[in-house]
Amino acid sequence: MANEEDDPIIQEIDVFLARSLLEKLYLFQYPIRPASMTYDDVTHLSAKIKPKQQKVELEMAIDTLNPNYCRSKGEQIALNVDGTCTDETSTYSSKLMDKQTFCSSQAASNVSRYAAAIYKKGELHLTPLHGILQLRPSFTYLDKADAKHREREAANEGGDSSQDEAEDDVKQITVRFSRPETEQARQRRVQSYEFLQKRQAEEHWVHLHYYGLKDSRSEHERQYLFSQGHGLAENTELIKSPSEYLMMLMPPSVEEENDKPMAPSNVLSMAQLRTLPLADQIKILMKNVKVMPFANLLSLLGSGTDATAVLRCVQQVALLVQGNWVVKSDVLYPKDTSSPHSGVPAEVLCRGRDFVMWKFTQDRWVVRKEVAAVTKLCPEDVKDFLEHMSVARINKGWEFMLPYDEDFVKKHPDIVQRQQMLWMGIQAKLEKVYNLLKEHLTPKKQEAQSAHPLLVSGEQRVNMAKAKVKQNYGQLEKEFQKQKAEMKSNDTSAKTDVANVRIKEEPVSVEEPMDTSAHEALNNGLVNGLHTAQGSMDPVNGHLPGGCIDRVAQELKAFVSSTFKKQFVLTLSELKRLFNLHLASLPPGHTLFSGISDKMLQDMVLDTGCKQILVPFPPQTAASPDELKVYALWEAGDTYDQHRQVLLEIFSKNYRVRRNVIQNQLSQECGEDLNKQEVDRVLKVSFCPLW
């Protein structure tokens, strides 16, 4: 109340609604004009409109006598567009850019809350707007200039052609018959951008006549902005309650469906999805995702959704395969539809896809050729079935894309039993249709449903090898005792001259042991391959009995040589990783398990003819010290030794080099003029990771 007293009403104005120009009044928004140019100075040469699209084109004259107009620029633009000749088709007949075209675009999709107002004698008259259009300059004359330029170039090139070229050549024509268009293909074509553009281009322009601001016709039309009758009987829209009047002034911002662009069929809005019934939500989700665990389905439906209701609905549109829900075939292929690849009816497609789903209930792997041989469908249809629920693995077949969901199977045994009964019925039906043999009915592995996908990574292989070594600990112990007995019987001098035994020492502060000797599971409580429970007289720290040192050196040298013959350039970290993988592949008790330090490995690399490349890496690099140590095989005995040495010399001066520098350096040093392809081959053969 206090605010109302501080802000008193000064004047009350009557508001009238004018209907004469209803659905005919547009608001044009022009670009900003120079201060010296007013709307009275503008001369409209022509105007045209496409009513359905609400698209307008206006052609306005430019004041060439204005001091702000650059005459030389106008002449140059006219010359580029029309050339030297002037005829009826010329854009600028005066050889001067004296006009400009403006094209419109819709500024707002919903203009129901906008109106044009005019105030006169204490009365405010409102006329609703039918559209708001923004006019922007059109530069189609530049396209015309480019077309003229291309025509002139084509004429110059074809001027010297002989008369023989003018004769029509006999060409072979290939006649093709298009397939009947399906309903889905027609919908995709109708929703495509090209189809919409074509429809817009087909609408004809309606030419308009422009009347100036002070023209008598304009004055007459302007009178329609006033309400023709001031009686309340003709303005019943204004006899409303305050709440209804406010609702009319500010309606809820709900966009009409026609104004919204039609989204593709495979795109879902979660906000719109959750407005549908639960059964429809689950059907749409399963139709788009095709394979989904029950936990993921619940998370997509939002918090608070009843799991029991979801279970009841999902069984109507999906089947249980390996604990996961797979959409039913009749949902993807409704009745009276056909295959987009072969035209096979939906009933045949559903049977073929049901066979693939049933095969995945028996095993995690399915062979595509077997499915095609049983179903007699084209390869494209079979591939679609498999891509819905599986992933292709090289040299193995198609594996079910999700792991076996043990949690769901344990929590819902009644659902699992019901689904098994359904699959038994589907199996009986498939046996009759496809005459399935016994080999088709028997799964390859009975434990396939409870097994997880056998995808073994490199790290898992190392762990498996370590576990294998640990299991064979007893065998290692026996071999060690046998070696110890042989050492005591054959090398008696070693017992009497214990004081002269040299213990190999590694500089701990400079070189740390490799990871292969740091893992307890890999070495099984051994230090460099020997048991730590023996007395101090036993050989430890890498001093192996008899000829073990020579055998370790030979094995290590063989590994380093074979590795650098495959990959000519390696960092120390990559070499250690490859050595770990090599150790994991060796049998238990191998001599290389005696413990190999970083220094031993680096010395062996240098002994095999490799060199360390001192690459000047930047100081701010985030690489580890082992990644900064680069070793390369200097001579491999092939034809690229000289090229490889030149490359290594280049990278010893800079860690980043341009291709042209490498090409020039190779040409100078090797005396060959190498092209780009040959340089790429040298880099590929050299396998230089610094490139």
From TrEMBL:
Gene: Polr3e
UniProt signal peptide: none
Ranges for region Disordered: 146-169
Span of domain DNA-directed RNA polymerase III subunit RPC5 C-terminal: 444-687
Biological process annotations from GO: tRNA transcription by RNA polymerase III
Protein name as it appears in the record: RPC5 polymerase
Cellular component terms per the entry's GO annotation: RNA polymerase III complex
Entries under Pfam families matching the protein: RPC5, RPC5_C
Stretches with biased composition (Basic and acidic residues): 146-155
InterPro entries linked to this entry: RNA_pol_III_Rpc5, RPC5_C
Domain of life: Eukaryota
